[in-house]
Amino acid sequence: MIPFLVAMMLLSGVCNTLLSKYQDLQCVRNCDPEDPGKIERFSQPVIQTAQMFIGEMGCWLVVAGFAIFRRFSNKDAPLLHGGYEQVNSQDSTEVDGDDDLDRELCSQDEADPIRKPAMPNVEQRTPLVGWRVFLLAMPACCDIAGTTLMNVGLLFVAASIYQMTRGALILFVGLFSVLFLHRKIFLYQWSALFIVVLGVAIVGLAGAIAPNPQGQPDPKSLTETAMLLVREASHHVKTAAVSVGALQTVLGVVMIAGAQIFTATQFVLEEWILEHYALEPLKVVGWEGVFGFLVTLIGMIILHLAVGRTDAGRNGYFDMQEGLRETTQYRTIAVTSILIMISIGAFNFFGLSITRSVSATARSIIDTCRTLFIWIVSLGLGWETFKWLQIVGFALLVYGTFLFNDIVRPPLKACARPRKPEPLLEETPIEHM
Predict the structure, then answer these.
(1) Which of 41, 142, 176, 254 could form a disulfide with 266 if both were Cys (CB 3.0 to 4.6 A apart)?
(2) What per-residue string of b and e applies to 290-316 under the rule 16 or more CB within 10 Å gives b?
(3) What's the sign of the alpha-carbon dihedral 365, 369, 370, 375?
(4) Of 432 and 54, more confident
(5) Global pTM?
(6) Which of 196, 175, 201 is closest to 401 using CA atoms?
(7) What is the C-alpha to C-alpha distance for residues 196 and 270, in angstroms, rounded to an integer?
(8) Which residues, including other chains, have CB under 8 Å from residue 108's CB and lie 6 or more apart?
(9) Residue 249 and residue 159: Cα distance in Å, rounded?
(10) In this structure, is the dihedral angle defined by the CA atoms of residues 285, 286, 289 and 290, taken in order, positive or negative?
(11) What is the pLDDT of residues 121-142, one digit of tens each?
C-alpha cells in the first residue's frame, strides 16, 4: 500500500506543476507560426489560483466517502463479528461494547488519514467548529497571495526552476517560527538556511544566463561554467544591455521566492490555529479551499471591474471575462484545468496519507524527488536545456533542506544538537503545488 501512495504522490505532484506550465504555453491569440513574436499565450494566474482552491474543495468528497464507508462498516460490524449478546447481562455488555467501540475507533484513527488529528493531544484542544472555522480564512488569504505570485512567476521561468526556487520556503518558515512561534534553531540549521538561499540564487542565475544551445554548447564542467559567467558578465557590461528573457527570468525567480513569504506565513498561521483547536487534516484543506475560492472569486470580480475591463487591463491578468472565455473556448486549456484540479486534490490526499503512514521525513524526500522528476520531464519535452549550474544549485537546495530537517548529519559533531530534535513545525496539513 505504501509504494502505491508514494507513486501516486509523485505522479500527482509532478503532473500538477507540468500541467500548469503546459497551460501557460497554450496560444490564445495571434497564433500564426510565421510571426512567433506576436503570439500571445494563456496568462491567467488568478484563474489558476481559483483552480487550485476548487481542487482543495474536492477533499470534501474524500471526507464524505470515508464518512459513508465508516457508517456502513460500523453498521455491519456486529454481523461480521457474530453480534451475540447475552440478555441477562445487558449492563456489562454495554460497558464491554463501549470498550470495544473505543478500541475500534482508535484503530480506525490509526489507519484513516481523515480521522487522525493533525496535531497531538487533540483532547486538550477546542474543536474547530462553528464561527471558529473562519479562522482558516487567514491562511487561505495568504495562500491566495502566494499562489498567485507563483503562478505569475511560472509564466517567466521553466518548470524545474519554478519548483527549485520554491525551496526558499524553508528559509521563511524557519525565520517566522523563531519570531512568532518561539522555536529554537541550532547553528547548523542556520547554516542550512544559508545553503538553501545560496542554492536558490544559483538556480535563478542559471536561468538568467542560459545560453542559446544553438549558439554555443552548454558548459561541461564547473570551470567552464565559471568562465561562462565571467564572459557573460563582461559582455553585458560592455554592451550595457541585458536581454529581455534574462530580465523576465530574474523577475520570475524573485516573484516565486517572494511568494514563499506568504506561504510561510500560511504555515505558521496553520500551526498556531491547530495548536489551539482540533480538526482533521483533510477538513482543514477543504475549509481553506472553500474560503480561498470565495475570496478569490470576490477579488476577481472587483479587479475585473476596476482594472480588467479598462483599455489598459484588457486581456491582462485581471480580465476575468477573457480568462473565462479562454478557459472554456480552448479545449486544451479546459482539459488541463480539470486535470490540475484533480492533481491538487490527489496530491493533498496522498501527501497526508504518506505523512500519517510513514513520516514527514519520507514526505520531504518524496517531494525532493518530485522536483527531480519535473526537471527530467521538462528536459525530455524540450522545455529547457541542460545546465550544470542548475545542477549545482539543486544539489545545494537538497543538501540544505535535508540538513535542516535532520535527514543528514551536520559535518561537524560540535554543531549537532545534543538531544532528540524538536520539529520546527508540526505536521502541516497543507501541501499545495
Answers:
(1) 142
(2) bbbbebbeebbeebbeebbeeeebeee
(3) positive
(4) 54
(5) 0.74
(6) 196
(7) 23
(8) 70, 115
(9) 12
(10) negative
(11) 555 678 888 888 999 999 999 9
Find how far residue 422's CA is from the centre of its chain: 23
Could you tell me which residues are beta bridge partners of residue 278? 127
What are the φ/ψ torsions at residue 29 (nearest 5 degrees)?
-150, 150
Q: What is the Cα–Cα distance from 252 to 250, expressed in whole angstroms?
A: 5
Q: Give the mean model confidence (pLDDT) for residues 191-201.
A: 88
Percent helix, strand, coil in the chain, to 5, is: 75, 0, 25
Joined together, the cell numbers standing for residue 319 give 480580465
- What's the average model confidence in pLDDT over 72-91? 46
- For β-strands 40-41 and 126-127, DSSP reports them as unpaired
> Whose grid coordinates read 561537524?
412
Residue 390, all three cell numbers? 542548475
Question: Taking a C-beta distance cutoff of 8 angstroms, is the pair 185, 174 a contact?
Answer: yes
Residue carrying C-alpha cell 565571467? 230
235-266 pLDDT tens trace: 543 443 446 667 888 888 899 999 999 988 98
3-class SS of residue 218: coil
- Residue 358 C-alpha cell reads as 510513514
- Who contacts 403 (Cβ-Cβ below 8 Å, separation ≥6)? 188, 189, 191, 192, 195, 410
Residues near 320 by Cβ (< 8 Å), separated by ≥ 6? 46, 300, 301, 303, 304, 308
Q: If you write DSSP's letter for every residue of 221-265 in order, what string do you get?
A: SHHHHHHHHHHHHHHHHHHT---HHHHHHHHHHHHHHHHHHHHHH
Task: Say which amino acid occupies 352.
Answer: L
Residue 27 parent element (H or E)? strand 27-29
How many angstroms separate the CA atoms of 178 and 13, rounded?
29
How would you label 335-357 residue by residue, b for 16+ Cβ within 10 Å and e otherwise? ebbebbbbbbbbbbbbbbbbbbb
- The answer to whether 424 and 181 have CB atoms below 8 angstroms apart is no
Distance separating alpha carbons of residues 114 and 112, to the nearest angstrom? 5
Residue with cell 554555443: 216
